[in-house]
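Box S1 | Example of a co-folding query
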Amino acid sequence: KTSPVTILVPGRLHPRAVERVDKAFRMIRIERVDPALLTDEIRRDVRGIATAGFLEPMGPAFIDALPKLEIVSAFGVGYDSIDARHAGTRGVMVTNTPDVLTEEVADTTVGLLINTVRELPRAEAWLRAGRWQRDGNYPLTPATLRGRRIGIFGLGRIGLAIARRLEAFGLSIAYHNRRPVQGVAYPYHGTLLELAANVDTLICVVPGGAATQKIIDASVLSALGADGVLINVGRGSTVDHDALVQALSDGTIRAAGLDVFPDEPNVPAGLTDLPNAVLLPHVASASVHTRNAMADLVADNLVAWFSEGKALTPVAETAKVVAGQR
Ligand code: NDP
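Box S1 (continued) | Returned holo structure for NDP
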């Protein structure tokens, strides 16, 4: 071991991150994020946590139970499951894994969009079921990508990578964030509803959490219109799924492509029965290549913190936390 520092790994974590943490530190594993599982030894020794982010929600009780805790290194760019604001007020650094997954997630989003609009999964199912021979060609798709007006809800790192790809497809791009992005020429809309009213294809890639909870509701879906397509690769919590199932059933919008759901791995009732929903099991970043890069960044943040006193990728809420503060 290069360091006597003790790192806690609660619950499942990418094997490469586990291997690297184990090599560089003294590692203790427990079954899940649960204050009841913290032994006296853990409470006494643990200075860092490596965690699978959204898989292992972490609230104030867990953070406060570890008096020597300095840093929580989370796997994934979305960290809405970790109370980072609370961590910040306690002088605990929180890090995530931005950038290394951006291009992969943007690639997957474009694939999901094409699958949703051109019905490719259903066309393949048609072939595999022998219907090409039996019934002839798969029906022409009523929807096309041609001429679509794309609205990006969350023009951040990933949103911008999606926009660049779709610009190359010859499609128009507009967006909504809380603030306009400097140096970006795409038209900005000050509200989500205004964006939805001005496009027919809404791509959601905002973070989860209270500020975006069920913000894609019946009125937003209705504003998209009958040719409307919703793609969600951000967080499932952002969409009102009762309203979505209704809108997909009654033709308020045409189709939806979803990679994320509010209570994974459960999928909201009604969605799996709908032919105009393309459903993926949260795979946007899930290649060996990209998940390895994310695992390395989880370990690298811990190594940088305990060797140089600096985190590589602090989240905004804890950007001002410095080593030795606690
Ligand atoms: P960024 O922080 O770079 O981008 C987030 C964007 O959302 C910013 O432009 C921000 O702009 C905007 N935004 C945030 N909150 C709001 C709000 N309340 N209303 C309107 N706009 C808002 O993050 P990334 O692009 O790196 O990642 C985005 C999200 O994608 C992650 O948080 C994660 O949830 C999700 N994700 C999903 C994956 C999957 O596997 N499906 C993989 C990777 C990421 P502003 O601050 O101006 O509002």
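The chain is about 35% helix and 15% strand. The pocket of NDP is lined by residues 77-78, 98, 101, 105, 154-159, 177-179, 205-208, 211-212, 233-235, 259-260, 282, 284-285 (CB under 6 Å).
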